[in-house]
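Support request, please re-run this one:
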Amino acid sequence: MQNADFRLPVRVDSQEAADRVVAEVWSSGALGIEERTEPGFFELVIYFNRSGESAIRQALERLADTALVVGENEGLGDLDWSEAWKEGLEAIEISPRLVVRPSFVDHPPRPGQSEVIVDPGCAFGTGGHESTRLALEWVDLLIEADSGPVRVLDVGTGSGILALAALKLGARSAVGFDLDGEAIREARRVARGNGMADRLNLFAGPIAALAAGTFDLVLVNLLRSEMLAIAGEIAGTLSSGSNLVLSGLLDADRPLVLEAFGEFGLEERSQRSLHDASGEIWISPLLGLPS
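Re-run finished. Output below.
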């Protein structure tokens, strides 16, 4: 990755606004984005070169409705951003059975512990965000090495981290898809790095392109609006014994999401939650069809 000339701090008041900013500036030529969660707000540090400054500024202007606060440019001089961004990143212990780490962090797994190696990049999903961690915790709880063949579907796979964790913990097969072709290219790279390229089936496209059939475990880590738009199609991938994990949701989203999936016969079986540094409560409901 080429070095950046500048970095620009941007503050927003919600994760949804942060996700919108990330999407806009990535598509406008940002070289990197660092997300920091502070009490009461989210700060994004956007890295870009001199020639890309105008496009980044225009992208932020298009997001005026998000009530963002844009700081001042900071010149980076001779700072090697390709190395500096690694500072502070470490392995994330999901459970005694699962750890997630960047490739440049030395963290030997414990006896019997599986590891997923994924570097921060253009695709969402490194295990650090509460929504990803909650989904990984469900994967750890729902997949046992001796539980028999488990077919997994990862909706909006991003980096592929959830599907890869499922395979590492004993799933027989996994399919992941994403509307973003760049995310799929990244997921394939991550799968190769984890020795799982031949076991993880990936494609770029909508859920409608998925072959007919059902899955034992369906993982959905998306924004609420993206999730609800395809709730019926997601429900169609389940059988009576399947588990559906939803993540990417705040506590306030719960009633609307459960109502939407309830229209397709799905019931809540359990829920996990985590607080982020700003005090927001992230939730991950476990749903299924009545037995």
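The mean pLDDT is 88. Residues 92-288 form a domain with the Rossmann fold fold (CATH 3.40.50.150).
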